[in-house]
Amino acid sequence: MKYLRTLFTLLCFTILSMPAQELTVMSYNIRLDLTSDGVNAWPNRVKMLTDLIRHHAPDIVGLQEAQRHQLDTIAALLPEYAWFGVGRDDGKDAGEFMAVLYRRTVVEPTETSTFWCSPSPSKPGLGWDAGCNRVVTWGKFRTRKEGKVFYFYNTHLDHIGVTARKNSAALLMDSVNARTGSLPVIITGDFNSGPGDAPYMTITSGSNRRAMKDALSIAERPPYGPRGTFNGFNISEYSTDPIDYIFVSSGISVRSHAVLTDSFHGRFPSDHFPLLAVVRLPK
């Protein structure tokens, strides 16, 4: 019996002393491919964008505004990553994707799906006063090293509809509350909203069973980069207000948070800055 107690004590000590599973998470609105962007059109910045991702080496990325041909190009240039998602206009290939890009050797999805930000979330459609179809793409993941299970949600809320943004955030949290149990949850996205607006408040509200925290607000290190996340391809002047976020559920700690302003020959890879957070999943 004494031997068993000693063995149990050693086992508990070993588990408690094991480092928590860390993941590097990115949220990135990559800007759809528009010829009207001129020098900033997709063919002129795709290498900058994929070089940035390769250098910072995130384990999982929530991409916004990605079109199918953009995703195909990213996959070809970054073969260490895979992705999933659907086009928001037909549930297949049409329109923008809120795709989830992930490093094959670090995490694997065990379940994936997409729902629409509308009163009929199971099928393509416009929600409330939105100007565009909007979706949430999510995945249930397992880390390959430690076997940790977590959920990852990615979205892009409407740029026009105030009601649509508010209701979409509520719909997102309804899914988190109903689906995830007590498992860790990470949310990425372009929310077209500031910290004082309804979507942010809905996601972080204590009235939710699973209130989320802005990763920036709980980072152990001082945050890196500017507060604003939209640059409009203007390298000399850009927004000081955030509209893109990484949110994490209780129990996930955040080692660092950055808004990356990498530029190449005076140009940005997208009209949004990517966010990068190093998070620790609960033991």
What does this structure look like?
This protein is an alpha+beta fold and 283 residues long. It has one domain (22-280): Deoxyribonuclease I, Chain A. The protein contains 5 helices and 12 strands. It has a 6-stranded mixed beta sheet with strand order 3-4-2-1-12-11, with no helix packed on it. The two termini are 28 Å apart.
Could you give the topology of this structure?
Blueprint: H1 2-17, E1 22-29, H2 46-56, E2 60-64, H3 68-77, E3 81-84, E4 100-103, E5 107-116, E6 135-143, E7 149-156, H4 162-179, E8 185-190, H5 198-204, E9 212-214, E10 244-249, E11 253-259, E12 275-280
Parallel strand pairs: 1-2, 7-8
Antiparallel strand pairs: 1-12, 2-4, 3-4, 5-6, 6-7, 8-10, 9-10, 11-12
Characteristics of this structure?
single chain; 283 residues; alpha+beta; Deoxyribonuclease I, Chain A; six-stranded mixed beta sheet; 5 helices; globular
What is the strand content?
25-35%
Mean pLDDT: 94
CATH architecture: 4-Layer Sandwich
Measured as a percent range, the helix fraction is 10-25%
Please, how many domains? 1
The strand line-up of the biggest sheet is 3-4-2-1-12-11
CATH superfamily: Endonuclease/exonuclease/phosphatase
Radius of gyration: 19 Å
